[in-house]
Structure formats: structure tokens, C-alpha cells
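Subject: sequence -> C-alpha cells, single chain

Hey, anyone have a minute? Need the predicted structure for the following. Not urgent.
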Amino acid sequence: MTLLLVAAGAAFGAPARFLTDLIVAHYAGRRLPWGTFVVNVVGSGLAVFLAVAVASPGWSALLVVGFCGALTTYSTLSYETLRLVEDGRWYHALGNVAANLAGGLIAGLAGFALAHLITG
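Reply:
Had a minute. Here:
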């Protein structure tokens, strides 16, 4: 049953990642991978919030592991960073990694704090 919940969450998380990237790229352009940054930061904050706030293992499987796991993407971060390196844009590549890691950690801390504030 848990596997089905994870798969169901991922069925919504992956398209959400794809659509978010399209929308962000439309407004911010593709010079830098802003779409991946947005999904990684938002997904990290949401995942930590849900992991703290949701007590049910089933809901956690659906939302945290399935949805947020498919929404966020380390593989795309790696690929896009390597593309920046191939283009000779080393500073952008380093900034991309640093921004994704720092942004994800900060968002995770915010999600943790918000969940504790709401749940007591």
C-alpha cells in the first residue's frame, strides 16, 4: 500500500516540477536554471513542514516521499550545473549549487519552524 501512495504522490509531483520549470523559464528565461531552484527550495520547505506536521505514515508516504520527492530534483540540479560548466560558466555553476543547497536548507528550517508553530 505504501508503494502505491508514493507512486500516487509522485504522479503529481513530477508534472508539478515540469510545469513549474516551464512557467519560471517563461518569466525568468533559461540563462540560469531558475525553475529547478524554485522547485528545490519550495519542495524542501514543504517536505520538512509536512514531515513534522503530518503524523500519518500513509499521508507522509503520499505527500513527503511521493509528491515532494518527485517535485524536487537533485539529478536535474546536477545536469544543469554540468551544462553551466561545459559552457565555461564556472561561477554560475558554483552559485547554482550553493543557492540550491543554501535555499533548500533555509526553506527546510522555515518549514520546520512553521510546522512546530502550527502544531505546538
